[in-house]
Design a protein that fits this description.
Layout: E1 3-7, E2 10-14, E3 21-22, H1 25-38, H2 43-46
Antiparallel strand pairs: 1-2, 2-3
Amino acid sequence: MVRKEKIGDKILFLCEMCGLGYLDEETARKCEEWCKKTGTCSVEITKKAVYFPSPFKKQK
């Protein structure tokens, strides 16, 4: 189940599987469904992430 959390000055929706945060609940839900189904993160979905818990680091 997607978790809603205030991080900094933003309300984010976090994937409970990988911990990535999104600005909208729908994308976080898609991320969580993908993670549960495949055991991996989707590149297309994670492009929309705005919060990256350790050990994730956003590539520039």
